[in-house]
Amino acid sequence: MTLEVKCPTCQKNVQWNSDFPYRPFCCERCKLIDLGEWAAEKHAIPGPELNEELLSGDIPDEFKH
Which residues pair with 13 in a beta bridge? Predict the structure, then answer.
């Protein structure tokens, strides 16, 4: 059975195999659209912002000099 996923950009079905080198995207265009959205900060991974961590002084000892 072949695994099938939806392209995150256009929702087209994509088989998860070597016939689709841009997987999980259906094509290079959809891959670049997604990359542009990350670069424009339309997507983000939840969590505290780095500046907040640095300002709090809560830096792990292994990162201190």
Answer: 6
Computed over its alpha carbons, how large is the radius of gyration of the chain? 18
63: burial class by Cβ within 10 Å (0-12, 13-18, 19+)?
exposed
Structure tokens at 16: 């998860």
Report which secondary-structure segment, H or E, holds 40: none
Quick: pLDDT tens for 3-19: 999 999 999 999 999 88
pLDDT band at 50 (very low <50, low <70, confident <90, very high): low
Structural domains for the chain? 4-55 (3.30.50.10)
Does the predicted model carry a pTM greater than 0.90?
Answer: no
CB atoms within 10 A of CB 25: 22
